[in-house]
Amino acid sequence: MWKRAMTGAVVLFLVGAAAYASFYIAPEERTMRVIQRIFYFHAASAWAGMTAFSICFVANLLYVWRRDEKWDSLGVSSAEVGLAFITVVLITGPIWARPAWGIYWTWDARLTSTFVLWLLYISYLLLRTLIEEPDRRALLSALFGIFAFIDVPIVFGAIRWWRTQHPAPVIMGGPGSGLEPTMRKVFFFSVLALHALMVFLIAERYRLEKLRTDLELVRREAEAT
Amino acid sequence: MTPPAFAPVGLRFENIDKRYGGLLALRGVSLSIAPGECVVFAGRNGSGKTTLLRIAARLVRPSKGSLSFPGELSKEQAAAIRPGFVAHATMVYDELTAEENLLLFARLQRVPQPEHRVDALLQEVGLSDRRASLVRTFSRGMRQRVAIARALLHEPTILLLDEPATGLDPQGVTWLTEAIRRLRDSGRTILMSLHGESEISSLGTRAIRLDAGSIVADTRTGATFRSILRFADV
Amino acid sequence: MSLLPNTAVLLGKELRTEFRSRELLTTTIVFILIVIVLFSFTFDPTSDESRRFAPGLLWLAFLFASSLMLQPCFLREQHNDTLSALRLSVSDPFAIFLAKLIANTLFLLLTELLLLPLFATMYNVPVLSVLHWLVLVFFLASLGISIAGTALSAISAQARMRELLLPLLMLPLLTPILVASTEVTKALFDRAPYVQWKGIGFLAVFDVVFLTALWLFGEYLLEE
């Protein structure tokens, strides 16, 4: 109990430190000024989200191979946490875009792909709610998760290839913009902090899932007799 | 009795569990069936008979434990074993004719000379004159006959019958009893799940009762045939 | 190896079943027609705009239609539990998928080709000069839609709300096909039509990737 609280405190401290760093340590960007600082969380969340989905993919593969329900629990935990981070990406994008460009959404390539990514994993979670029997649910959602993850690079590739031909404002300066050294340090620190948060959240969610499945098992056994 | 033209095969269930959510449909079932045995499974609905047969058909994967086919078989032969399965559902296409259905499954299973085989089976189950009718137009009893024909297409060495007399009228039951008798006498291994005593149950050489996923009585370990079947529905 | 003969036999069954009732084809064609007409109310279909929007419209219509057409794919095998009969009869379960996806590709292609002349007339787009290229795009895209759709329909058939679930699963997954097909078609409908090989290659890669994934994981989709 204490170990979890301590870990949580450390993670919170890291995230707080990253926030502080992005506001006070990182130098102000030339063109965008203050609003650019949201980039640190926006981009770091994207990385953390993708890492979470990668964990989900591996968990899905392991479930199909091993059929141990702990892989299913890890799969749903990492998918939910990943989705949370991706939601942050989708929210911080418009928050940046409005003062910068005057519009909330620009159908920028990366943001659009991220939206599709979000839809894919929402579908993964929705699928799970629509299958009652736990073993079926685990297997079928793992298989869909595998197909969805394989699709991710294809989605990003397709949208990048064709959408960037259309002139549109690019969120956060696009791939060409370089990061000055201090900014780079702050960025990587944010990435680290958010990854720590991600791992912590997945661990907590996994714990919750284990409790939930155990309870479900007891309830079904009681109903069956 | 002429010796069988095939290698008789037995089955071995080792410590089989099958879990559906919190429900254990089968718990720790271990069972050895010798080649050529005709086993009758009795038990209430939900006792696990259907699940056991579906595992034997290799349609269902057990949560724990394994199924094997002991006998003088190579590994490839054991993997290629295809039991004939008659289930509660007919497993035939309503929108195809009886003949089309049987030809489909005969060709899929690479039955030699499929047209002849289908002809012979249609004759045997008494549906030759309705071969070109859509199964949709058949009565329940006629569909059951198509299902049985389908199961026998590839001359299986193991037969799995899940309440096969369902929907058959008395003549149908008599015909089916004779058909199973012939199959049993030809040395095939037969597993049947039945509801209680009947013409068909008398064909069994062994009876086993299942209750809540476990074997509770077996003629091999001393129980009598009658006792197993008589109290099946209690 | 009996994969190909089994696939051929099953494909015959799929085609025979459909051509006997034609229910999938007719409902799909009518649905796409309705969508095409409805779309025309959302912009000026006679102007230059139509040349810009037409390709996207066409592919959206095909995608929506296919997400409905593919629902019965595995659902109908639950009737009388014929899926179990198939699983018992074939040595490689991939044959079941292969036969269904080939059949679905053919059905989609057929509806697309039947509707193309109508679409071209209604939206004033020139198709004759680039017909063979259009057929190529239609084929590659329909193949991709069928591969993913057949796999996903095996999943949705085992869940609740399956009518709504399949489009939900299919449409985000197939966005790359929508993007690539629209772009290639746009290039073909252009005043100076050209073949966008990048798009065609992309569609082919999509097909190969998902066919491989289906081959690797297909048997688990049918497990009980």
Question: Explain this structure to me?
Answer:
The complex is a heterotrimer of chains A (225), B (234) and C (224). Chain A has helices spanning 2-25, 38-66, 69-101, 109-129, 134-163, 181-224. With 225 residues, chain A is mostly helical. The mean pLDDT of chain A is 87. Chain B is α/β, with parallel strands linked by helices and 234 residues long. A six-stranded mixed beta sheet of chain B has the order 5-6-7-3-8-9. Chain B has a three-stranded antiparallel beta sheet with strand order 2-1-4, with helices on one face. In chain B, helix 3 crosses helix 4. The mean pLDDT of chain B is 89. With 224 residues, chain C is an all-alpha fold. Chain C has ten helices and no strands. The interface between A and B is small, with 12 and 6 residues.
Structural class of chain A: mainly alpha
**In DSSP terms, counting alpha (H) and pi (I) runs of 4 or more, how many helices of chain C?**
10
User: How many whole angstroms does the radius of gyration of chain C measure?
Assistant: 18 Å
- The total beta strand count of chain A reads 0
- Report the sheet-strand fraction of chain A: under 5%
* Percent of residues in beta strands of chain C: under 5%
Q: Overall 3D geometry of chain C?
A: globular
Main sheet record of chain A: none
Overall pLDDT confidence of chain C: 92
